Amino acid sequence: MKRHTYVALLATLLSATAWGQEVSLYGTTMAEIWKQNIPGSEQATYTAATQYLGIDATKLGSDNLSLHLFGWGVKDFGDSSPTIYNGSPNGSYSGGYLSFGYLQYRFDQANAEIKAGRFAINQGTGFEQVDGVSARTDLRGGFSISAFGGRPVLYHTQDLSSQLNYDFQKDFIFGTRLAWRLPQVTEIGLSYLEDGTHAAQNLPQPTTEDFTRRQVGLDLLLTPTTSFDLRGRTVFDVAKHPEVAPGAPAHNDIAEHDYSATWRIGSQVAVTGNFAERNFFAYFAGSNMPSLFRQDDHDMFRGWGGKVTWTTEANFQLVGDYRHTHRETFGDSNRLGGEMRWTFNDKAVLFGLGGHIVNAVDTKFVDPSTPYLSLSYKEARIWTLVTKGQFSASLDGILQRYDSGNPYLAGVQNVYEVVGSLGYQATANIKVSGDVTYGTNPVAKHETQGLLKAEYRFGSAKKGGQ
Amino acid sequence: MARNTILQVLALVLGLGMMTACGLVSPEASFTPTHNYALGAGRPICTECHSNDLAKGALKTYATFDHTPTFVKNHRFQANQDSNTCAVCHAPSFCIDCHGGKVPMKPAKLLADRPDRDTPHRGDYLTLHKIEGKLDPSSCYRCHGRANNDQCRACHR
Q1: Residue of chain B with shortest Cα separation from A292
Q2: Which residues of B touch A344 (CB under 8 A)?
Q3: How close are the terminal C-alpha atoms of chain B, in Å?
Q4: Which among A44, A68, A74, B75 could bridge A50 via Cys, Cβ 3.0 to 4.6 Å?
Q5: Residue A247: partners with Cβ closer than 8 Å, 6 or more residues away
């Protein structure tokens, strides 16, 4: 969207708030400082201010019409921002973004609603940001239908020449989902997504960089009894692709299977199993970083695992989990671990403890002759959050211990981070807090970061929103 | 060409939809747009207050929406099917903390004072991503594959 269109849209939306009978303004103001410590590189100090700002205005002339705006801006006041933030050792970082800004009309009947503007939508095949219109409604007989259309929100690609193709190809996005619900038993959804209408192979000067997607999704929830549920989705790639070379393996048109089943045993124990499979050629379609998320015909991921959760009436929760992963071109790994949580005094004190072991000795390419040079690591975490009156305090420590000699980590073996935070809830709608983070960076040097935060909400706030 | 076809199909569907909408739309009243009161820290269990009846609108039991560890990990399924039910308790900005097309900082830093929240990338994830990205790049793709990857480009050129 062009800058002047952006400004005009924002001005129109902001002026609409004047009609609102209930207007809430909320935001978070943050100031942080830290010094990047990388040997051989000039030390850069990051002194940034970040502002999140949102507006909810309801009852705009009608009880059913509302406006929602949210965005952020950041400015580094240091001489030069760390390379991690701007990709360049010189020059300070600044930026901003309108996350969403839309008008919404909710009907009194059938949970129907219409949105217009910039919004995020999670429907069927995936999560999209759109400048356009969306609508949904429940239908008779347990059916519901939803659709959206407009221009996809565009992002940066890896280089300027790619950006031109990207902007040209992604001119229009359309999605729809038809679902059927049988109360308490099932929901089945069928969805379609078309992201960009100018496929690379149809351009006047065809390119290999295809940023468009065409997908069909099937999502499912099945709860035959109150103690069991199965949910998940399968996404199919239905775009036309160039013919594969003779003798080469055909593309797998299934982008993703992703399923999870939970069985609740009594009131305290739940057992969950999950399975996922993603074929990279179909799954990575439409990426604006195709060199990183490569549509490799031969690569795929498959993972399966389980989780056992035990929740006692004494506000104690114990979780044990296991997951096996397989990547076609890299090998297998096993992840095993657990987590414990306690809550005391009506959630005034929360305490958690967890640990995981990732055993990746079956991976390929690291060094098959010396498998101990692997991607294996261990992770431990301990945290607490205490609230007393208007004050709150938290402490969070995390340690990752990597196998010695891991060639990807330049000799780094132990990485840790400790975060301490103090907060003061001045009023029901204003909270100030400060965080101090101490830990190691990717080159095993110690860094300390400080962050001050003010969170506030003015006006007639939405009761349940958080 | 394809765009025109889609627009024509869309117009046809809308036209037919308008003619038959009154007969097809559910006569049920919409459910409440917001929860009666804000919920405190920690993962809410809906069935602590609501009996295990059907949640109006969703036509699913309240237990379906209990924020168990499994629910938190797999909330993409519920968000996919019941985003308007999520909106009863969560403002859209709640999702944007992690799922914005662009975010100025990683969620773990934004929510450093909420260790109870299951935010991604706690600790020095910049180091860990060299391993996790090799074991399963599809897990990175969900958030960084088509958006929110300005910082990735600093190294992945």
Answers
A1: B156
A2: none
A3: 34
A4: A74
A5: none
